[in-house]
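Side project, low priority. Logging it here so it doesn't get lost.
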Amino acid sequence: MNQPQPMKDASHLYEVERRAYHAERPGFRIAELQLSAKQKVPWHTHSNISDTFYVLEGHMRLFLQNPKEEVNLKPGEVYVVKPTRPHLVTNGATTSLTFGTASAFALRATPDRSPAPP
C-alpha cells in the first residue's frame, strides 16, 4: 500500500481570514494567521518541526494528541508543540482569532570532526 507523502506546505488545504509571512529562512518561518469564529487549522503533525503559537487577539483552543490535551490560550500566551505531536487549532470565541506561529526545523547537530588543536 502507498504511504502518504509529506507536504512541505499544506496551508492551501484550509481557509483562513488572513495569512501573512513575516520571515522565512531555511529551517525557520514566522507566520500570522487570522481565523473566523468557524475556521480551524485541521489535525496535522510535523515530522521535524516544532510550532510555537503566540496569541495576539482572541481565544485559541489547541487540541493535542500523544498525550491527549486541550490548551486554551489568550492574548500574550505562548505554547510550543514539539515535532511529531498531532495538533488542531480552533477559534474559541465568536470573534476573530489572530495568532503568530514560529516554526523551526529540528536540526540534528553533527559531531565536530576537526582535528584537535596542537
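Brief comment: The longest strand covers residues 49-57.
Revisit when time allows.
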